Amino acid sequence: MSQVQTRQMGRLTAAGTLDKLDDTLSLLARLKALHFVEYDGSEDDLSLGTPNDKAEEIAKLLNKTRAAVAQVEPAGPSKAASLATVRKSIDDGLEDKVDSLLGDLSRMDEIENSISSQSEEESVLSLLSPLGIDIELLSGYESITSFVGTVDDVKAAQAAAGDGMFVSGTSGKTDVVAVFVKNEDADSVSSALSEAGFEAIQLPEGSGDPSSRMNDLMGERLALQTESEGLSNSVSKWVDDNGEDLICGLEVLERDHELITSPVKVAVSAHAFVIDGWVEMDRSADIKVALGNVCTVVDVEPFVIQAGGAHHDHDDEHHEPEMPPIAYQPRSTTKPMELVTDMVGRPGYGRLDPTVFMFFTYPIFFGVMLGDMAYGLATAGLGTFLYSRAGTNDTLKLAGRFLQLIGVSTLIFGYLYAEIAGFEIFLYEKLTYADGSYMKDSAGHYMYSDNLSPVAFLSALYFPFDIEHGYGWEASYGFSLSLAFPFHRVGSHMTDLIIISLYMGCFHVLLGLIMGFRDILLVGNGHGGVGLVAAFFEKGVWMILLAGGFMFAHGFLGSYDELLMPGVGLIAFSTICLIWTLYRYHGLDLFVAFLMGPVEAIGLMPTVISYVRLFAVGIVGVKIAETGNHMFFDKISMDEPLMAVLLIIGWLLVQAFAWLLGVFSPNIHAARLHMVEWMKQYYDSSGQPFSPFGGTSQYVEGE
User: Fold this and answer.
1) What is the tens place of the pLDDT at every residue in 385-403?
2) Of these four, 144, 229, 334, 440, which has the most CB atoms within 10 Å of its CB?
3) Please, where are the H alpha helices in 523-589?
């Protein structure tokens, strides 16, 4: 049962003499067991601690290292480095190396800006060059106004110049003009030039012929590019030689900075200190023993939830957050699903953790949608590749294991569907006479062709099952539920898959309601309601509504007429209860509750129907792959080798597209079904992650 709940937390209070504060904090950093509750300075006789004298020096180096890592993005080591080795690297001149790197990077930025500025100037000079006038002669007169720019109509511009001096030229397809007129004629000429489509050019600084200046700029740019290439090679070599030291050094410096500035989180007096925070109760005994050597007082009080949403702890007068942070249970097999849980937010304290439940339902939903042996192998293979390349990156490892999990599920459902790369492994047709009627044997059974599938040889995978004409067995279990092996979802069992999708929706929503019932029964609903009555009205009535809707649907469809009226009765009863729930627990006016109750009840129907996407998304994916098979694979002929190669390439591209779409689309829909349709039935995502003091150890071993 512990795997479906988060770890029990306790509030730690540790106090001691001020001279032991640094030792205490250093010990806590090594333990990585305390989630700090920072002192807010509210007590008159206590103040905030002060950082260590080395804080400024470490912060300076840390900022430089962060800037370097952000710009070059080095790869971390494949296995954790020893702390002693990393500290030696820091002491042996890491700062000087970082300064050198940052200097090269800064110079590269300067060069890039210079080249960009020169490119803009060159584009202007290329426009001015056809005029044949030196740059300094284009402006700067006292009694003459100059207009230099591009025009749409050269003749109109020349006419606009009037008695002034007019020079024109062409740069590519752009007409450029220079007009010089007396100052008193400037306004009229400006207006006339506007009608000719005149756009002024921002003249560059300097002097001389524009063409000569362009040649000079090209030479300068070439020199800058050569310098930039040299610096780029130098930076690449620097990263190859020092990249791992840089990223390991950053991790150690971040740890040191957190430790050295941690006194500001602690309440201190002239002679003593008090540390406050959260710890995991299963580690509390070891923590108390360890701190007993440096602290005068160490107390850990288990956090106890008071039903209804309130709580008590060791000091009800604290102004800290009421609920403790959330730490997951130690996991191995189901740990990859924590990625999905964290996308929504961690569960509220004392409430059920959905991670283990999703370990089963998420891969099933994904497999039902994608369900192809080839794509399952490809997805699991991608996950294995990511896992093998993850090195010290725990998140990438979890992502790889997650892909392995959904890939195996896809492979299993692909086997059940008898599908691979969009092909059906068992493909038979009923034989017909010339008049179109079906052939039957002496016993009256239909007669079938041989297996027409291009992958018929894979039927060997189904040994020792006795599969005849594509089926091993079929069975009907009532209430429109039918199963078969293999289950041909794109053929004879498409309708059955729709029904199964709806059944999965009913079960999944019911599971969420049961989990919500448990949480309200033991913890509360957030509105002050707790216990059996609150749980019944908040979640139990939805279960009744779900059962009533199930009975009504089967009765209305005519399969089970005797269920129609009981279903209507349950729907009516649950709707009345919903009205009371909205009034009693959600604070709505009674009139508004009467209006909203039926609307809320109807809202359960689209929630369940939303699970039909389990059928629809999968069918679309199969049809894409199947279309590619018909367009390319079916037309491959070795009589035309070149065309055969092109068709094979086209077929592989379609398969790759179908697989990529299959990885993303079912994941999106499986996530939606869990995060929206399921979790809204019970989930409280108010939990804050447990963040132990001391930092993480990703690239460097802990102390």
Assistant:
1) 999 988 888 889 999 999 9
2) 334
3) 532-535, 541-556, 564-584
Q: What is the pTM for the complete model shown?
A: 0.81
Two tokens at 3?
């795997």
CA distances from 189 to 34, 177, 473, 660 (A): 78, 13, 93, 63
- Region 125-146: mean pLDDT is 90
Whole-number Å distance between alpha carbons of 184 and 163: 12
pLDDT tens profile 27-62: 999 999 999 999 888 887 888 888 877 888 889 999
CA distances from 149 to 118, 136, 175, 201 (A): 19, 15, 9, 5
What is the crossing angle of helices 494-522 and 355-370, to 10°? 170
Name the residue with tokens 């007169």.
141
The CA–CA distances, whole Å, from 691 to 29, 290, 389 equal 12, 20, 27
Measured distance between the N- and C-terminal CA atoms of the chain, rounded to whole angstroms: 34
Burial (CB < 10 A; 0-12, 13-18, 19+), residue 526, is: middle
- CA 323 vs. chain centroid, Å, equals 27
Note whether 457 and 450 are within 8 A (CB): no
The H-or-E segment that residue 400 falls in is helix 394-417
308, 502, 541, 556 from 561: Cα distances, Å: 43, 20, 24, 7
What does the alpha-carbon distance between residue 685 and residue 663 come to, in Å, rounded to a whole number?
27
Identity of residue 366: F
**Got the DSSP string for 254-301?**
HHHHHHHHGGGGSEE-SSEEEEEEEEEGGGHHHHHHHHTTT-SEEEEE
Chain center to CA of 641: 44
- Number of helices (H), then strands (E), in the chain: 20, 16
DSSP alpha helices (H): ranges in 43-150?
55-72, 83-89, 95-128
Burial of 95 (0-12, 13-18, 19+ CB in 10 A): middle
Are β-strands 473-476 and 482-485 bridged in parallel, bridged antiparallel, or unpaired?
Answer: antiparallel
* Ranges of H-type helices in 129-169: 154-161
Percent of the chain with pLDDT over 70: 96
Q: Residues near 590 by Cβ (< 8 Å), separated by ≥ 6?
A: 583
524 phi-psi bin (left φ>0, alpha ψ -120 to 50, beta other): left
Q: Which two tokens stand for residue 639?
A: 């009589």
The span from the CA of 366 to the CA of 617, in Å, is 10
SS3 331: coil
- What DSSP line would sit under 347-385, residue for residue? PPTTSBP-HHHHHHHHHHHHHHHH--HHHHHHHHHHHHH
The C-alpha atoms of residue 362 and residue 668 are separated, in whole angstroms, by 11
Q: How confident is the model at residue 321 (pLDDT cuts 50, 70, 90)?
A: very low
Which helix (H) or strand (E) segment holds residue 522: the answer is helix 494-522
Q: How many residues does the chain have?
A: 703
Q: Which two tokens stand for residue 224?
A: 């800058």
| Crossing angle of helices 154-161 and 186-195, rounded to 10° | 170
Residues contacting 413, CB < 8 A, separation 6+ = 367, 368, 370, 371, 376
Sequence-separated (6 or more) residues with CB below 8 Å from residue 143: 182, 183
Single-letter amino acid code for the residue at 334: T
Delineate the domains of the chain, giving CATH numbers in brackets. 121-216 (3.30.70.2750)
- What is the phi/psi pair of residue 482, to 5°? -130, 140
What's CA 499's distance to the chain center, in Å? 32
Output the pLDDT for position 500.
94
